[in-house]
Amino acid sequence: MPNKMCLNSRLYRFLFSAAITLAALTACSDKHSAVSEFRDIAPSGWVYGSDLIFTPSGLDSIKERSLLLTVRHSNAYVYRNIWVEVTTRTLDHKRVDTLNIELADVYGRWHGTGFGPSYQYELPVGQPMLIGDTSRIAVRHIMRVDTLRGVEQIGITITPPHI
């Protein structure tokens, strides 16, 4: 019959090495699998030419990531769609995406999620790219009005690429 002290010592060493291994694996994982930022739009409206600037943090620039754009709007938004320009700048690259985002169908039923007076619609922007801490993302509307009313927030989410 093995010595009880010897079994306790082996169990202790096993548990200790398992804890160290788990800690090492956790430290190697991506700190943020998704990073989101939102900007509020003034109740008076989103002025044409006014860029919303996003500077994501907590990302390394060696992994490709997907960029998602979120539009939060109210029932007061009078259009079916919104045209936006998304400019993504990294250390060595600049990409400009122009998006026509359909927020409602031809009958005026809002796409996306929400209830009451607010709705949210999210869609991918372009192909995955290298987005890191030094990246800068600018979003502006390019509708043919001076001030766009009914948009409450614009947000970005940066995630691992969807496969």
What is this entry, summarized?
The chain is of the alpha+beta class and 163 residues long. Helix content is 15%, strand content 45%.
Helix residue percentage: 10-25%
Give the percentage of residues in beta strands.
35-45%
User: How would you spell out the order of helices and strands?
Assistant: HEEEEEEEEEEE
Helices, by number, come to 1
How many structurally independent domains?
2
Span between termini: 55 Å
Strand order of the largest sheet: 1-11-4-8-7
Based on Cα principal axes, name the global outline.
Answer: elongated
Q: How many strands appear in the DSSP assignment?
A: 11
- Which CATH-level-2 architecture of the largest domain? Sandwich
By CATH reckoning, the class of the largest domain would read Mainly Beta
Q: Determine the mean pLDDT.
A: 84
Q: Which class do the helix and strand fractions yield?
A: alpha+beta
Q: Radius of gyration, rounded?
A: 23 Å
Query: Could you describe the largest sheet, including whether it forms a barrel?
Result: 5 strands, antiparallel
Which spans have pLDDT < 50 for at least 5 consecutive residues?
26-32
Give structural notes.
The protein has 163 residues and is an alpha+beta fold. The chain folds into two domains: 1-30; 31-159, Jelly Rolls, CATH 2.60.120. The protein contains one helix and eleven strands, in the order αβββββββββββ. The strands form three sheets. A five-stranded antiparallel β-sheet has the order 1-11-4-8-7, with no helix packed on it. The chain has a four-stranded antiparallel β-sheet with strand order 3-9-5-6, with no helix packed on it. The protein is elongated. The model is unreliable at 26-32 (pLDDT under 50).
